[in-house]
Here is the input.
Amino acid sequence: MKYRYLINGEEVENIVTPEWSDDLNNFANTFSFSTYSTYEVGSMYQILTETGETVLKGIITDFEQSETNVFRFSGFDCGFYINQNEIIEQFKKIPISDAIKKLCQNYSIPFGNIPEMSATVTEIFKDKKLSDVFNQLIEYAKTKGCIKDVYSTCAQGRFEILPYQNISDLTGDMSVFSTQSQKTINSPSIKVSMQDLRNRVIIADNSDKNRTRVTISDSTSINKYGLLQEVETIDTSKTNNISKIASDKLKTLNKLSKTINMSMLGDYRMRKGVIMPIDCELYGVQGDFLITQSKHAIDGEVENVSVTLEMRD
Here is the structure.
């Protein structure tokens, strides 16, 4: 795949070693590149496919000069402003989707696809990063059952909340993974861990004077792995039935985690929020895996991608 690179809307040819990366736990995608020309911090940077599809659109925030006439630039998409702004905002019985859109408008962040989240929020957000508020609102919406299996991205130059996407024809998946060709796949690392497993969940209601709480546990898991407990205090005036919250939480946490790190010949569609299938008998890995992190690096006309994946249920 060949890419086109634009700075302030003008196509440039002398881009060297461009890279970009994303992470499910970060609103901002990052990029960097070297060039023999100088550009001002604050310049707009865009990566396009040959067909004109935007891969990433952002702003140059930093540059450094390592040698004569060689400059390294780096920056972020508009998630940078979500991560950097501290806010003071108050909402009263406003749908979560409307609250998110209003925050985007108030802080000049373009937004695109925001799913309908009809559950309402009444809260004062003070001295908090906008990113923390977005995370809190999205978590409210998940608890209320408004959304599920979604991720946030700003890669297109606007904030969006999108559903996970299944893509079965990615470079590096299935048969390519199985062949272990050094030209396509390098050093797959597979890790299974119980460190994040929790087999007892206690949910306490801090809006109830009697301090109602619900405990749900899995005795089979406790006998096998030992007791691992999660405690969470919530305000049920803002969330769903407390028993359902506990049950859903236990279902999510009561399992071993399986992650894969690997590098391969790339595909720009290999990005956070994408689910890819892997079937490799040699490593005993089979199933659907969610890309949680990706890093793309261009060397000449070769695109290499490093990804971190988590196994889906």
Q: What stands out?
A: Helices lie at 79-84, 96-106, 130-143, 175-179, 219-225, 242-253.
